[in-house]
Amino acid sequence: MAINRIPFSKPASSPEQLLQKLERQGLVVDDFKRGQARNYMRFVGGYRLKGYWHHLVDPVTKNFPAGYRFEQIVSRCEFDRELRALTMAAVERLEIAVRVVMANHLSLKHSPHWFLDGNLFRQGRRQGAAELVAKIEAEVDRARDKTFVKHYFSRYSEPHLPPSWSVCECVTFGLWSRTYQLLKNPDDRKAISRRFNVDATEVFESWIHTLTVVRNMVAHSGQLLRVTLGVAPRDYRKADIRFSDSKSFYAVATVINYLLRQIGLPLEWSEQLKALFAKYPEVHLAEIGFPIDWGNRPGWL
Predict the structure, then answer these.
(1) Record's InterPro entries (predicted)?
(2) Which of 287, 297, 293, 279 is nearest to 78 (CA)?
(3) Is cis: bond before 159, omega within 30 of 0?
(4) Cα torsion 19, 25, 30, 31: sign
């Protein structure tokens, strides 16, 4: 069905004008909070802040609920910001774990330069393997100023790339996720996933792909509150992990918690979430897909 489009004609408004507009729509801004409100409008931005309140206004009048205060918007914004920071720290821990486990297993079983062996990747996907090497070459080239990369090229003539344990410090998490997807030998895939206590390789593949998408999202300050994610981790039935909404943040958080518990390194993800939820009781957990009894569900126990 054709959509009738019109030229964009909205004028730009200053932060002060936007704040005044919100007040006309019924938003309460106390005098002693006005300076803070201006700073949020100036340095966070009215358009970004709208992501935290647009669902609250009357669809016809565009007015806020009676008595709704600017600091309530601030709480929602700060909750989301702190949730992103916690998520980034947790995913970073898992990113390093995944790439080290993959590099160690494949280097020990095949060779330190296993990624140059096209036979390790699925038949019919040689182009994928070639693209993989090309991306590694590009990432290593960008990292030429790093001490460990300089050392390799100053000492060794071949292969033309450093070994896997060096390369893994250069390339992106997305590339490691793609590498796992391309691996041909099911024994290699299973050996890697089992280090994280996941027997189903298709589940592990979907989980690390999900983590790469979420990592990029939070790295670019994407909103998590009231957002449907564009990626869905698979259920892991062996561990009784099933998601009623696999595109919710709760699904991602469950994957993060399960994997963190398998590696046994210090990062109290579930406790950090509990502390965050207690700090912002006005934010409903359902807005990020968390059930009330989330701490007692599979993946969290």
Answers:
(1) Abi_system_AbiD/AbiF-like
(2) 279
(3) yes
(4) positive
pLDDT at 235: 97
Distance between CA 14 and CA 18 in Å, rounded? Answer: 6
Low-confidence ranges of the chain (pLDDT < 70): 1-2, 124-127, 266
Are 140 and 213 within one domain? yes
Contacts of 177 (CB under 8 A, 6+ apart): 98, 205, 208, 209, 211, 212
| 19: containing domain | 15-72
Residue type, 244: S
Please count the structural domains in the chain.
2
Q: Which of 117, 43, 95 is nearest to 208 (CA)?
A: 95
**pTM for this prediction:** 0.92
Domain final residue, candidates 25, 51, 72: 72
Give start and end residues of each alpha helix (H) in 196-238.
201-219
Q: Which of 72, 93, 115 represents a domain boundary (last residue)?
A: 72
3-state secondary structure (DSSP) of residue 112 = coil
Q: Are 210 and 95 in contact (CB under 8 A)?
A: no
Integer Cα distance of 256 and 243 in angstroms: 14
